[in-house]
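Hello Y.,

Per our agreement to keep a running log of every chain we model this quarter, I'm adding this entry. I've kept the format consistent with earlier entries: sequence first, then predicted structure.
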Amino acid sequence: MTSKTSFEINDGVAVLRLDDGKANAVGYDTLEAIDTALETAEQDAGALVIAGREGRFSAGFDLSVIGEGPAAAQALVAAGARTAARIYGAQVPVVAACTGHALAFGAIMLLSSDVRIGADIEAKIGLTEVSIGMPLPIFAVELARDRLSPRHFTAATSLATVYSPRGAAEAGYLDDVVAAGELHDAATQRAGELASYVRRPAFSLTRRTARQATIDNILSTLDEDLKNFGVLD
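Predicted structure for the entry above:
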């Protein structure tokens, strides 16, 4: 793990905490930590919790990398898409403990996770790309199409609507909202329950049936879709 993350396994539940002391911007080091946590959890645990820092789940991709130019932006977003697909297709259940703001790739991590529990605080959750002049990539649209309520799909994607935690639960970014002080226990308890009764072979086969077509579409269209990312007027 990096200095921005920590990882532990207790009672069959793996917990990855993201904490860069700021907005939890996602760069290559964070993506690598998530990928490593998934691999370890699949080998040594029954479920994985991905948690943010107090008040911040993730504000999205590291803008210092995005600002290096179109090629750098395309490379980081492509790496993020592969990690999102990895979460979405994980061979153990993934529980997101949304500690606060979850914007852009932060929201995508919620869409990729199986169970999403949010802190009942003043926070913003949503796909903000269109509002800052960036089209949503195919991978983000497909994850949103799968996980969001159809009533909110257009508002959340084309209209870049940002939700409060309770609004995000109605839209489909979250499954439940609890008091901030209860979030860690709620997430780890839910992960423990899943680890206790979800049978790995059946889970893996059902996961493949339910999600592999979407994952294949995301990965097969990724390079072409991102070819002009970051170069729009």
